[in-house]
Amino acid sequence: MRVLSSFNIDEVTCADFNTDIYQLGVLLHPPEVINEKFLIRLRDCVVKLPQAHALKRWMSWIGSLQSQGTTQEERIGSPFLTEIINSQFNLITDIQVKNRIIEALSEVPDDTLPELLLRSYLYLMIGNVSRSDGILRDFIKTAPRLNWERSAFRASRYHRIARDQAQQILSKLARHPADRSIFQLLVLYLRSYYNDPGLLRLLDGIDTNEVEAKLDLRFTLAVAPELVHFRRLSLLPEMFRVRELRGPRIPLPEQSYWVWPFIDVAPLISEALLPELKRLEAQDQLWLIYLLDDERLADLYSRTSGKSFLPGRRKFLKEGLETEASFMLCLYKLIELGDIDEALVRKTAEVILR
User: Fold this and answer.
1) Per-residue pLDDT at 69 exceeds 80
2) Is 54 within 8 Å of 349 (Cβ atoms)?
3) 137 CB contacts (<8 Å, ≥6 apart)?
4) CB-count burial class (<10 Å; 0-12, 13-18, 19+) for 256
5) Which of 61, 127, 200, 241 is the most buried (most CB within 10 A)?
6) 55 — phi, psi (to 5°)?
7) CA–CA separation, 209 and 342 (whole Å)
8) For residue 308, pLDDT beyond 80
9) C-alpha dihedral, 226 to 231 to 235 to 237, nearest 10°
10) Backbone phi, then psi, for 282, in 5-degree steps?
11) Any residues with CB less than 8 A from the CB of 87 and at least 6 apart, and which?
């Protein structure tokens, strides 16, 4: 989950940058698309602002991002990993090279999707197929709402390497001669639950027909039951889909995290869903806020509780900004509610620019 902004650089004036909404827009502008023209315009507008101002701090932050990759550690480490990623081989047998990969694996974190893909690929290259698949299996067995919390406010060098080499890593993972069922399930997961255009373009050419033909097999269901249930449901006509969701096979807690926000379930909505909504209100209010984007679910909640849901949750969302994992999810909802003010700009700068 990453909240991004976009605006026409040529139409922005210095007066615009005095407003909270444009200041927040700058903080949330994708660093990878920043160009020199925009930086010059912004620098001229903020030159007289105090150093502690969010936009001045953002200018320094962008400068530090642009200088990343110049340390001796990165000059040494990045070419080696890039060479391994672009190797024509599917297995590294040279003991010295293998040891260097193992040493790198001890340093690569698993906080973001690019880092996970890099770790899985490196394990594959040293012949540890089970460990490589295990990393991907853990990811696809985790509900999307939790995987969305994997953030990169301060991206590691390994995240940057994997992001820059993502096309090659995905291609090598897809073409490896070992059984590719787990990797293909990962691709189905990402296509089902992620909407980043760049990521989806990278996945476009990956063939998943082999694993899709195995969705009815007990083995595939055991590997990723929630994902398999979802993919099966997505292929059913609406009448049969609703009948399946009303049956006992897919429990309500699984439905609320894996199905309801991603498939039109309007015909399913009834008071039978109330126990799950009440459970989420007690255990995961943030996800309930997202579920109640559905008007019929929101009406069901309001009708049975006698109160509107969202207006009373602003305080909860603002408190959620204090936790990095939930920051983007809470920020998106506050922006959607129109709660953009100086305090929100200040908090966003504190989290992103620290």
Assistant:
1) no
2) yes
3) 182, 223, 224
4) buried
5) 241
6) -70, -35
7) 50
8) no
9) 30
10) -85, -30
11) 125
Give residues with Cβ within 8 angstroms of 274, minimum separation 6.
300, 304
Please give the Cα distance from 278 to 294 (Å, whole number): 16
Instruction: Find tokens 């109640």 and name the residue.
Output: 292
In single-letter form, the type of residue at position 219 comes to: F
The structure tokens 């008007």 sit at 295
Residue 73 pLDDT level (bands cut at 50, 70, 90): very low
Q: C-alpha distances in angstroms, 151 versus 56, 82, 102, 137, 258?
A: 24, 23, 25, 19, 20
Structure tokens at 167: 């096309």
Cβ-proximal residues to 295 (8 Å cutoff; 6+ apart), any chain:
none
For residues 149 and 112, give the distance between their C-alpha atoms in angstroms, rounded to a whole number. 9
> Please, are residues 24 and 345 in contact by the beta-carbon 8 Å criterion?
yes
What is the C-alpha to C-alpha distance for residues 347 and 328, in angstroms, rounded to an integer? 12
φ/ψ bin of 345: left (φ > 0), alpha (ψ from -120 to 50), beta (otherwise):
alpha
Q: Which of 5-9, 88-92, 294-298, 299-303 has the lowest mean pLDDT?
A: 5-9
Segment 213-271, tens digit of pLDDT: 999 888 899 999 999 999 999 999 988 999 999 999 999 999 999 999 998 888 999 99
Nearest-angstrom CA–CA distance, 213 and 81: 35
Higher pLDDT, 266 or 35: 266
Q: Nearest-CA neighbor of 31 among 190, 160, 165?
A: 160
Reply yes or no on whether the pLDDT at 278 is more than 50: yes
Q: Write down the pTM of the prediction.
A: 0.90
Q: Where are the domains of the chain?
A: 9-66, 72-212, 250-352
Percent of the chain with pLDDT over 90: 60
| Separation CA 319–CA 302 (nearest Å) | 23
Q: pLDDT tens, 132-168?
A: 999 999 999 999 999 998 876 777 889 989 999 999 9
Question: Cα(171)–Cα(192) distance, rounded to whole angstroms?
Answer: 19
